[in-house]
Amino acid sequence: MDVERAQDLIGTPVFDRNGNRVGRVGNVYVDDVTQQPEWVTVRIGLLGVRETFVPLTGATTEENRLDLDVDKDRVKNAPRVEAEHGHLTPEEGRDLYHYYGVDQGSAEQPSE
């Protein structure tokens, strides 16, 4: 997914792997090195005031929706991360990948 298309996701409804609505895309975060979209924040809750980071690994897009490769409870219970200045620290990224069970290397290349 390219950056322009990823930016177009902001405000898009987000669904989990089972088709349950999770929230809306709040923001898109791009890898500093590859410049590829790597994370989105999902606004959850009644007012959409809580934002949770979710990896784009395994996610698919259709017209006006983003389907994640994780379930709703996983998103709702994700660790709170405040991305200062629009960036995740390497430690935050590793912790989030670990939480979601995603091998950090698989974000760039298919695992064997």
UniProtKB/TrEMBL annotation:
Domain of life assignment: Bacteria
Gene3D superfamilies from the UniProt entry: Photosynthetic Reaction Center, subunit H, domain 2
Location of the PRC-barrel domain: 1-74
Entry GO terms, CC: plasma membrane light-harvesting complex
Species of the source: Saccharopolyspora hirsuta
Transmembrane domains' residue ranges: none
Name of protein: PRC-barrel domain containing protein
Biological processes, Gene Ontology terms: photosynthesis, light reaction
Pfam families the record matches: PRC (PF05239)
